[in-house]
Amino acid sequence: MLSEPPDVVCLGILVVDVIARPVEALPASGTLALVDEISMRGGGSALNTASALVRLGLRAGTAGKVGADPFGEFLLDLLDERGIDSRGVLIDPALPTSATVALVDGAGERTFLHLPGANGCVRADDLDRELLFSGRPLHLAGALVLDALAGEPAAQILAEARRRGLQTSLDTVFANGRWERVLPSLPHADLFTPGLREAEAISGEDDPAEAASWLRDRGVKEVVVTMGPAGCYAAGTDFEGSVAPPRVQAVDGTGSGDAFAAGLIYGRLAGWSFERAVRFASAVGAFATTAVGASEGVRGLEETLVLAGIA
User: Fold this and answer.
1) Interatomic CA distance for residues 111 and 243, integer angstroms
2) Is the pTM of this model over 0.85?
3) Which of 90, 123, 163, 277 has the fewest other C-beta atoms within 10 Å?
4) At a CB cut-off of 8 Å and minimum separation 6, what does 108 contact?
């Protein structure tokens, strides 16, 4: 157990990722296809973002729920191994730990099969408020697959964090349908980093600038729409525009959006301008794609500043 309070608490999904690569297409029903690698990794937006924050030099904690099963033990051991405060993680013997099968193609793009498991049953009443709000920012990670929190409960948590003087940030993950559940949280989010498909589904706008404007009109202070190899579109009070990603050799895009969120949180917590924070976040996300797994490719602060061109 860590003696100091975390700098950042990441509330959200904790997942075991089973990664198969390369998978260019699913085999025909009833047949077999070969892959080069199948591996088991820690994943989920809360774990991924916390891991990246620790790699950048901050103390991070997680809050969420796992099952009393081998996958849950794997995640708890991994949190301890990475130096992430796990006191906010609940263990529910009645539920399976959430798991995802990630199919990664040769370009690093991912397709997911997801078991919500314990993540979908995290309730506001389960959470230790003092642990939850013990950091300086609160990051709500994977909001749309936290079924028991989605909608008003999530909005109330973010609103309380704001009342306590915390910076708030929001990540949704892609979820088919029920996008309206994120709307109550938007007025309480300082930072929001949806992928382009998520931003389109929430706003109904297929242009990243229009989607970002739509989200800011509904209360988000600063929005970054991420677009993978195409970079991102950022919209805030002191900067708006497209930002190209740094050049890296992409191997696996799993967790790159979570790493981007960690970089943005780091930059804003450090008091940097929005534009500098976005460029730094782009470098954190780019490094995440250079190794198999959600956070194994993330580098330390100095190397990331160099890649971002802001050292």
Assistant:
1) 25
2) yes
3) 163
4) 250, 251, 252, 253, 289
